[in-house]
Write a structure and sequence with these properties.
With about 300 residues, the chain is α/β, with parallel strands linked by helices. The protein has 8 helices and 11 strands. An 8-stranded mixed beta barrel has the order 3-4-5-6-7-8-9-10, surrounded by 4 helices. The chain has a two-stranded antiparallel sheet with strand order 1-2. Strand 4, helix 2 and strand 5 form a beta-alpha-beta unit. Helix 2 packs across helix 4, helix 4 packs across helix 5 and helix 5 packs across helix 6. The two termini are about 25 Å apart.
């Protein structure tokens, strides 16, 4: 998978970094120093005898640093942005505005709240992104099984159906496959799917964090087995409430609630890491929209995180 190579690249960057609001105390992190400038110009190789070859007059200029490109702003959208009155009774769509015209990327939600319920206007949102020629990615809510889902999906998947944790992981795996089918039917292309891990109103997680962690692990594998890289959207207080000390080491997308753009960028700092991964995106809420920004240095690697329409 590309994610292994990507993580090697990411861990060399400054640690960086649905709408979640955090109650985490401010750890007052020390600002991360900018990336050092590129090294001195390199020259063409010499001949085996040690003297310059006939082509040695070419000087290769230093490569631009990732930070030189600056940060990039975008937004995310899901079922709340669908026309009013659609969706399941617990999550009726709200007709909220799509991202601002200035957005260069959009992360689209695949679910209408909990797992196994599709965003009812995803295809229309994909068409909107295509018309705007934006960068696109996807995220999905992960939720605990409810109703007969454990009995239905627990025996189906790569995990041991003879154990409780295996059956729960299979549910998460099947949630991912359901969302992959939804995404492909809507024509949404993305190199990565972000797992949104937080309490889900009306479909909340139980208090057994080990059981919840099994579902999340299963979902991550479901996307990976389907050929997608995987990241996580959450924040420490919500992550630990749901899955305890689970550490996946995946890229992170960190929300700052209504605290604004500056705070979203501040959460790119490694002090806000919650499951062992470098941050890629920060998010804040403004003007009735979920707004996002790439963490410093990440704008040089947009193709790792988005598909260009």
């Amino acid at each position: 998978m590309r994610i292994l190579a990507a993580m090697v690249l990411l861990l060399g960057l400054a640690a960086c970094g649905g709408t979640a609001t955090s109650a985490d105390p401010d750890p007052s992190p020390t600002p991360t120093a900018p990336a050092p400038p590129a090294g001195a110009p390199r020259t063409a190789p010499t001949s085996p005898g040690g003297s310059p070859s006939t082509a040695a007059s070419i000087t290769i200029p230093p490569l631009p640093t990732a930070s030189a490109r600056g940060v990039v702003e975008g937004g995310d959208a899901s079922w709340p942005q669908c026309p009013e009155g659609l969706g399941i009774p617990q999550k009726r769509t709200e007709g909220k505005p799509m991202p601002l015209p200035s957005a260069r990327f959009v992360v689209l939600g695949l679910t209408n709240g909990p797992g196994f319920v599709a965003n009812p206007c995803l295809a229309d949102q994909v068409a909107w992104v295509r018309r705007q020629h934006l960068l696109a990615a996807a995220y999905s809510i992960v939720s605990a099984p409810y109703g007969d889902q454990l009995a239905t999906f627990g025996p189906k998947g790569p995990f041991d159906k003879g154990t409780s944790s295996g059956r729960l992981a299979n549910v998460g795996y099947q949630e991912a496959l359901f969302n992959v089918a939804t995404m492909r039917a809507a024509g949404l292309r993305t190199p990565i799917v972000w797992l949104d891990v937080e309490p889900v109103k009306d479909f909340d997680w139980g208090t057994d964090t080990a059981a919840n962690a099994a579902v999340v692990r299963g979902a991550a594998r479901g996307y990976a087995d389907s050929g997608y890289d995987v990241g996580v959207y959450s924040i420490a207080s919500l992550w630990h409430r749901v899955v305890g000390d689970l550490r996946l080491g995946l890229p992170e997308w960190r929300p700052a609630g209504s605290r604004g753009r500056a705070e979203a960028l501040r959460r790119c700092d490694g002090a806000w890491m919650f499951q062992g991964g470098a941050a890629v995106l920060g998010q804040w809420v403004g003007g009735d929209r979920d707004r996002d920004v790439t963490c410093p240095g990440q704008s040089a690697y947009l193709s790792l995180w988005f598909h260009q329409y």
